[in-house]
């Protein structure tokens, strides 16, 4: 089943700002003009050493560089305009993930709505009528803001400076923070992160209302709220929703709410209706090279490599394949 | 003239994730339930010390804490759905700002279109037909990726760790980087930053095609392209545009382009039709307190202050007033 919108590889290529219209003549005519000298500091035109971009590296990926998310950890949020695919991270929030699976299998979310869209921050869904009853799922869970580092969790550390965590890196495909003093880890609030809304008391979240980050990484939320996964595909279906004009971006009128047809576990969806995604593994030499390609970009367009990449600026490539 | 969408103060309040529906009874009933113990690490419920939020601090602002952007440095991008207000930063890009003023006054942009919307990255406008001629404006300018620190520029440094620049802080209302070794400064690519598209050669930008950041701060672009200002109001008009499905988020069909009615300088717009914005000054004790309120949030909701704030996570409050 094709996605309405695929998540593209966001990586900046050397032609990122090359206007596509340039090829029809404008660029050539611009280049041919003699330029009056201006007062600014002139950047040397010495090109950076050519080096592979993320896209180049992805082309070299072997089957072992890709992983297929477990259908038991994959949610399909079905909106009228298409499907959002979420990968859950049970190693980081085992109790919340278990509860969300129960909520999904109870049909808890079916027919609910996205009730909030705050620019440069989050969208959030909930039961607008507060009428849904829980069946097997629990109300209120103890927080999983951080967890003790579990067995089986990889950690490919990013040695770039980070202000929000003692250590950052990638664990089993997710951007994460770590504190070696307490041997704890947590998911970072990067673009597309999915978290569990809560009230002021730490145990008031249970997964009945989830939010997705649609703006600049709000890392101040890290370790203050339980993050359960991230969006792998379909982000534009959420990021382009009209912003709510109420406080905190809530929609002010019920008719502004965005209906959710359903949330299903991929495991419960017939094979033919599934979205088959491959995600680049984060514990491989290839991924290390991809991070370096994003840290120090080469080629014609960039003139000054950053020498750094923020945790949430690392793009983990995802592709859809037919099965 | 009211804005279609105002830029709200994005600051996370302690009630950020308090579902607005909670007040009608759900939260109370949830709190009254006894909670089964879970296996996660339990966060202490000790509340953080109450301290003023950004919103609290803004309420204490004196007239001298606010500034009114110069109408000669203010652009109105008029879309069918409303107005986007951009503040230009001539201290950072004097030649490009001068050229953009000329382009605006020539009517260069009127009737052009937004031709690109790439998720978690940028929107960009240009002449889709490449037919526009320049009159007084120049084609191709030498880059202003950085400038020598000019006289009259304030710098309120943020001492928080930053991976992309030797120093970061706020200059005359804008998030900026600095390198004391070269005595240069540049605008940072934060959410809402407005930059000048270019081809691979550094002098191929002139302001005829501009982009606005709509995603996680792409700081790797800093010092690689000329940034001329930032959006003060109306971001949702850009951030919610349908994403382009072509390479780099370009719209694939001409009819997908988003028409721009015009771009005007506020100085050329009759007083009664102007959008009157106040922006919090960044060189005041109040702003220092606002930054601290965003670095270490207090109150009931947050359990762990971040002890850090990224340059692009600092929200500079803006309000609209009637005149």
Write the topology of this structure:
The structure is a homodimer of 323-residue chains.
Chain A lengths: L25 H7 L21 H6 L6 E2 L6 E6 L2 E7 L5 H13 L6 E5 L4 E5 L20 E2 L7 E3 L8 E5 L2 E6 L4 E4 L5 E4 L13 E4 L13 E7 L1 H5 L18 E8 L11 E4 L4 H11 L22 E3 L3
Antiparallel strand pairs in A: 1-15, 2-3, 2-14, 3-13, 4-5, 4-14, 5-12, 6-10, 7-8, 8-9, 9-10, 11-12, 11-13, 15-16
Describe the structure.
The structure is a homodimer of 323-residue chains. In chain A, 13% of the residues lie in helices and 23% in strands. By secondary structure, chain A is of the alpha+beta class. In chain A, the strands form three sheets. The first copy, chain A, has an eight-stranded antiparallel β-barrel with strand order 2-3-13-11-12-5-4-14. In chain A, strands 6-10-9-8-7 form a five-stranded antiparallel β-sheet, with no helix packed on it. In chain A, a hairpin with a 4-residue loop joins β4 (113-117) and β5. The model of chain A is unreliable at 1-40 (pLDDT under 50). Chains A and B meet through α1, β6 and α4 of A and α1, β6 and α4 of B.
Count of discrete alpha- or pi-helical segments spanning 4 or more residues of chain A:
5
Strands of chain A, total number? 16
| Secondary structure: helix percent of chain A | 10-25%
The end-to-end span of chain A amounts to 10 Å
Give me the side-by-side strand order of the main sheet of chain A. 2-3-13-11-12-5-4-14
What's a concise summary of this model?
Two copies of one chain form a homodimer. By secondary structure, the first copy, chain A, is of the alpha+beta class. Chain A has helices at 26-32, 54-59, 94-106, 235-239, 285-295, and strands at 66-67, 74-79, 82-88, 113-117, 122-126, 147-148, 156-158, 167-171, 174-179, 184-187, 193-196, 210-213, 227-233, 258-265, 277-280, 318-320.
